[in-house]
């Protein structure tokens, strides 16, 4: 039986003046704004897609993921429907919409995608009264540079219409390929639902000495660890990588079920909000502790007795021990990238 092609619609809209991306092509606003303001999300998604030149957009592959916060599944459906209508040929999406920001970057580079869309508001609160956001990553797996963010903003200020396939429905829970015939398209639009952890785990295996880490966590002189995923996207990664793959006991990992409201707390890995981890570490039972933010691109590290290790010092520790990391032994080091909250530890 022949399938009826899915209609591609053009919807009239009016521009918003407040859709300037900040922080690498990202738009972060109260969730209620996305839910209540007519076409607020479609407007920004259209501006984002239109920032990719038409010849690069037609038939290309993009990656889509979210941190699982409230409104994510609704937003993913809109992104899928609009990507199809705008000529994207294939979307790769994490199962149930879940993909950490580092995993999106990894997949973009692995499959040579044109870019990726991540639905997250980072460490901000989730739930109906929280915040929601959209981030754009470009073909190198990094956040959109200022020139791309500026282009998105300029398009958003004059936007009069967007394209969408409102009848297109994707099953985010089913691994594998789903194909859709669209009106006026020569090839079917494809969506591939992938395991949220697999590709990223394979990358980590090629970088770090898993045998040495496994021995550290399970051997005669094992170190006890405590990892808090803060009910964000990192829960499945922590369970699969640290517990299943590297042998840490299951009770080493806490708050590993992604929740739409992150359990009512901001998923912010700092001494103010990661209090459960801090209290556990202060007891002296654990030798290493870590917490992650909602989308997994920021962390906090604690040593025994709750000793706080800032990001600058952890980078310096890695730099001082490069001989323990197989990837750097093979590939060498071209430089160290440090961000705003820096120190002189790396220089030393």
TrEMBL record:
Q: Show the Pfam families listed in the entry.
A: PGM_PMM_I, PGM_PMM_II
What family name appears in the similarity comment?
Belongs to the phosphohexose mutase family.
Q: State whether keyword Ribonucleoprotein applies.
A: no
Q: Supply one GO BP term.
A: myofibril assembly
Residue intervals of the Alpha-D-phosphohexomutase alpha/beta/alpha domain: 23-162, 200-305
Q: What's any one GO cellular component for it? A: sarcolemma
Per the record, the domain of life is Eukaryota
Protein name listed in UniProt: PGM5 protein
Region: Disordered, residue numbers = 1-27
Please indicate if the UniProt record lists Phosphoprotein as a keyword: yes
An example molecular function term from Gene Ontology annotations: phosphoglucomutase activity
> Which keywords, in A-to-Z order, does the entry hold?
Phosphoprotein
Q: What is the protein's species of origin?
A: Pandion haliaetus (Osprey)
């Amino acid at each position: 039986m022949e399938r009826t092609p899915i209609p591609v619609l053009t919807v009239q809209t009016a521009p918003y003046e407040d859709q300037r991306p900040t922080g690498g092509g990202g738009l972060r606003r109260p969730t209620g704004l996305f839910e209540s303001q007519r076409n607020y999300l479609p407007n920004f998604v259209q501006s984002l897609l239109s920032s990719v030149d038409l010849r690069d957009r037609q038939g290309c592959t993009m990656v889509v993921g979210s941190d699982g916060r409230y409104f994510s599944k609704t937003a993913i459906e809109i992104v899928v429907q609009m990507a199809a209508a705008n000529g994207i040929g294939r979307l790769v999406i994490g199962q149930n919409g879940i993909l950490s920001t580092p995993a999106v970057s990894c997949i973009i580079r692995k499959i040579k995608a044109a870019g990726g869309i991540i639905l997250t508001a980072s460490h901000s609160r989730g739930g109906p009264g929280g915040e929601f956001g959209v981030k754009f990553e470009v073909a190198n797996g990094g956040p959109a540079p200022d020139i791309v963010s500026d282009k998105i903003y300029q398009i958003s200020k004059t936007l009069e219409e967007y394209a969408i396939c409102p009848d297109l429905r994707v099953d985010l829970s089913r691994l594998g390929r789903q194909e859709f015939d669209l009106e006026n398209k020569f090839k079917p639009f494809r969506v591939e639902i992938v395991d949220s952890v697999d590709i990223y785990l394979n990358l980590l295996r090629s970088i770090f000495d898993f045998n040495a880490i496994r021995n550290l966590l399970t051997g005669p002189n094992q170190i006890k660890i405590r990892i808090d995923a803060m009910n964000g996207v990192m829960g499945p990664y922590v369970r699969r990588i640290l517990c299943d793959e590297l042998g840490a006991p299951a009770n080493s990992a806490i708050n590993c079920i992604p929740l739409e409201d992150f359990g009512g707390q901001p998923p912010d890995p700092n001494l103010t909000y990661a209090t459960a981890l801090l209290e556990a570490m202060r007891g002296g039972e654990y030798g290493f502790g870590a917490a992650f933010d909602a989308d997994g691109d920021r962390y906090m590290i604690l040593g025994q007795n709750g000793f706080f290790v800032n990001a600058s010092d952890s980078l310096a520790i890695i730099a001082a021990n490069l001989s323990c990391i197989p990837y750097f032994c093979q590939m060498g080091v071209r430089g160290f990238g440090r961000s705003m909250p820096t120190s002189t530890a790396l220089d030393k």
